[in-house]
Write a structure and sequence with these properties.
With about 130 residues, the chain is α+β, with helices and mostly antiparallel strands. Helix content is about 45%, strand content about 30%. Strands 1, 2, 3, 4, 5 and 6 form a 6-stranded antiparallel β-sheet that branches. A hairpin with a 2-residue loop joins strand 3 and strand 4.
């Protein structure tokens, strides 16, 4: 059948069937990246347990983040600490540290470059 005569739904179905392998590959890549992000988030959360303020956390850990090669800085506008990790091929993950109720927490919202190389904010706590 000529593509000009196919409905949008039929074209979408054909496209979906033709490229389903790539869709599944992207889903698997996302799951894999989420697992790594959750591990990093848990590690950073463990570091925050001993601190009651962002200032204390920054003073205690800024040199360690520098040693790791992680950009670690204040976001004065949003009153957060930011840890930006640069990965291969200009990929990045950015973690945000916030102060709530006299304790430091790591936000579950991670800014990253996704599987199609677009910048995205992702709540990694949602499967």
């Amino acid at each position: 059948m000529n593509n000009d005569k196919l409905s949008r739904a039929e074209l979408a179905k054909q496209f979906s069937e033709k490229y389903s392998f790539f869709t599944e590959l992207a889903k698997e890549e996302r799951k894999s990246r989420q697992a790594v992000m959750l591990k990093r988030h848990a590690y950073f959360s463990g570091l925050t347990n001993s601190c009651s303020s962002l200032k204390e956390f920054y003073n205690k850990y800024h040199e360690l983040f520098q040693i790791w090669g992680v950009e670690f800085y204040w976001d004065e506008l949003n009153r957060k600490l930011v840890a930006q990790i640069w990965l291969d091929f200009n990929e990045h993950e950015t973690y945000y540290f916030e102060e709530t109720d006299s304790k430091v927490v790591v936000s579950p919202i991670i800014s990253w470059q996704n599987e199609v190389f677009a910048n995205e904010d992702w709540d990694i706590s949602i499967p």
